[in-house]
């Protein structure tokens, strides 16, 4: 199957699944086509590679026809109007099931339904059980009605696409807003002048509880940034506006004491990728820094204890070791067994010291 045919089938499937709002108008076109061409049967059909799907009809009750049994398979293979004046005299359809059997079709005229991207996805067609010849005016009117069918269908397709995109954007916005608001970090979206464009509840709560500032859209930078932090904030925002991502840890003096923050300045982009402002995030890492300092202090305390214990144990053990060495050189009195016990105890104590240090 060619890529073009795959695209055509995808288009047909999209129209088959589409909710059609212009049903009355399309049914009226079918009836008008039958009246203009003076035929008892008229249809609007969609054609995939296996089935002819009859969506609107007059003079017939059938809903689907196998692709190989259709007249319209020949219509969608070309762009112009296809007219078969006598089916029994046409090699393409004279053995057709609906020609050989009831309703014994003899006449057919079909206008191709072609999308704007040049996919032949169906037909507006008329049938008769008697051979027939259409006038030039009838042929032109059938072609025009086919184009009107396509306009109505593509209008519905565009409407459905807009609706789907709208619903998708609402869903994405809801997800983004949910994430934005549920984040424990503070978020600010700033325009190119660094005025407030949007913010989350965490940012509102911090500025209100710590700095007694009521955040509002359009607020200039000088109204929500502390004076001593202003130059650094502006510098990092300017870097973000140039396309850089700035990530720093900063210790800030606040009315409630020193606070440690992890700050991120990122370029805010629009749908086309153009930088339209700054996305600023601040995460309070004060507790983390306190915990880190506590761990460092504890480790230093352990090292000091180790040094103290080492010094306190090494000194007497070294003294005992020296005394034992002197005794060994002089030789133990044979009748005093305590010396051998003392030597054994010293060896055990020395081994334990090695295990500890």
From TrEMBL:
Residues annotated as signal peptide:
none
Short name of any one Pfam family annotated for the protein: GAF
Top-rank lineage group of the source organism: Bacteria
SUPFAM superfamilies listed in its UniProt record? GAF domain-like, PYP-like sensor domain (PAS domain)
Which Gene3D superfamilies does UniProt cross-reference here? 3.30.450.40, PAS domain (3.30.450.20)
Known InterPro entries for this protein?
Answer: GAF, GAF-like_dom_sf, PAS-like_dom_sf
GAF domain residues are 26-150
PANTHER family for the chain:
GAF DOMAIN-CONTAINING PROTEIN (PTHR43102:SF2), SLR1143 PROTEIN (PTHR43102)
| Name of the protein | GAF domain-containing protein
> What organism, scientifically named, is this protein from?
Mucilaginibacter galii
């Amino acid at each position: 199957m060619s890529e073009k045919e795959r695209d055509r089938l995808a288009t047909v499937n999209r129209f088959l699944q589409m909710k059609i709002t212009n049903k009355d108008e399309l049914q009226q076109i079918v009836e008008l086509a039958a009246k203009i061409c003076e035929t008892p049967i008229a249809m609007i059909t969609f054609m995939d590679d296996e089935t002819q799907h009859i969506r609107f009809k007059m003079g017939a009750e059938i809903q689907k026809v196998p692709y190989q049994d259709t007249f319209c398979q020949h219509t969608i293979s070309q762009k112009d109007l296809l007219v078969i004046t006598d089916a029994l005299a046409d090699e393409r359809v004279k053995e057709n099931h609906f020609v050989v059997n009831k309703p014994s079709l003899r006449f057919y005229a079909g206008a191709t339904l072609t999308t704007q991207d040049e996919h032949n996805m169906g037909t507006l067609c008329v049938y008769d059980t008697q051979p027939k010849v259409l006038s030039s005016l009838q042929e032109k009117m059938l072609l025009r009605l086919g184009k009107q069918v396509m306009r109505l269908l593509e209008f519905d397709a565009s409407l459905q696409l807009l609706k789907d995109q709208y619903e998708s954007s609402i869903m994405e916005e809801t997800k983004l807003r949910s994430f934005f608001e549920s984040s424990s970090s503070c978020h600010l979206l700033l325009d190119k002048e660094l005025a407030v464009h949007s913010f989350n509840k965490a940012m509102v709560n911090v500025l209100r509880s710590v700095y007694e500032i009521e955040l509002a859209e359009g607020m200039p930078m000088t109204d929500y940034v502390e004076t001593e932090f202003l130059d650094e904030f502006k510098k990092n925002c300017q870097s973000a506006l140039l396309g850089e991502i700035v990530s720093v840890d900063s210790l800030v003096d606040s009315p409630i004491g020193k606070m440690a923050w992890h700050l991120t300045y990122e370029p805010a982009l629009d749908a086309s990728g153009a930088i339209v402002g700054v996305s600023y995030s601040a995460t309070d890492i004060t507790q983390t820094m306190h915990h880190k300092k506590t761990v460092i202090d504890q480790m230093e305390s352990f090292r000091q204890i180790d040094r103290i214990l080492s010094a306190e144990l090494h000194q007497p053990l070294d003294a005992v070791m020296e005394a034992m060495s002197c005794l060994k050189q002089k030789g133990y009195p044979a009748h005093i067994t305590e010396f051998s016990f003392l030597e054994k105890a010293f060896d055990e104590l020395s081994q334990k010291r090695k295990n500890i240090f």
